[in-house]
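User: I'll paste a sequence; please echo it back and then give the predicted structure.

Assistant: Echoing your sequence first, then the prediction.
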Amino acid sequence: MKVGVGVSSERISLQAGMQAAAEAVAAAGPTKLAIVAVTSNYDCAAVLAGAQSILGDIKFVGASCAGLFTPHGLFERAVGILTLSGEDISANTVLTDGRQVGAKTAGQQTGQGLLANGATSGTIIAFADSFDGRGTQLLDALYDSAGPEFSYFGGGTGDSRKFSNSFQLTEQGLFTQGVSTALIRGCKTFNTVGHGWIPTGSPLVVTRAEDRVVFELDGRAAFDVYAERLGGVSGDSFAETAMRHPLGICYGPDRFIVRDPLQIVHGNALQFISSVPNQAVAYIMKPKDDPAFTVASGLAQQALGEIAEPRFALISYCVSRSTLLGSRYKDEINSLIGPFVRQVPFLGLLASGEIGPYSGVPQFHNKSISLLMGGK
């Protein structure tokens, strides 16, 4: 297996795609699959055209994002490309338009398309539009369609923190409200996820929820309970409080799927970034005191321990962590990539939601870090 990474901050979109692709090819030669991250300052269609002019008729999968990082550094304006090649590597891609169908149908169609060539195992990379809050439903349907023999990684596509428009791309083109996916075979992968949030107080039961709107917690108005648990929260202070106190949905002992509160709706209900299930047990969370960022570095060390011959890494890092940590988010990313920065090529995205497994089942997370390590 050969892996190349290229990055370009050239301001002209076509040339940025060409430069990043050329650098990746120079490092690894002919390519089977290109994984592309594009910050939203660029014309994604022109970036794709530029990359294709260098890489030719190969498979692509990629997304827009709020920022990216590679061995070259952390960028808020750049095109990053990681390429995979080798005799054993194969890939197929599916680009699904979610504008005309529901999330469940989009997930089913995607899974059926990925398995159309008879694949029975491999790693699925998925980049989905997350601004409409349908990421969880789409991922559940994809998993139901493709099944447990596959591992899953990816994230929600984003923009430069405006939360208004995002792009998903394959070699077939791009959509703004869809999902781009690739199925990779011929390498061993390991995926892990973490977040560093810890529960506070006693558990709550989500007694009434519809998709991503929670109307009741413990049988009372959701915002009233949330504010009461935190000693009082006004409408003016809600955004700051919500950033530091998301909801954690219990998923087994000491495991939580983080859900990011977005706004107060219907008077005293809470709307979240992603869906919250009815009758779930949940806690109000707070950040773990982790000045050395051991949660992040631990994810990398765990992945390195699972792959005997690591060759590449892909990372979805939630953009909201950069808001929470301020400039220190760069220190967290450095701690994350530190264990493999000089030995394993990598591409990381500042994503709007992260896809990673709990007990082998893919989940759509918020405020988290998902890491995929690939090798032999």
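The CA atoms of residues 62 and 169 lie 5 Å apart. The radius of gyration is 20 Å.
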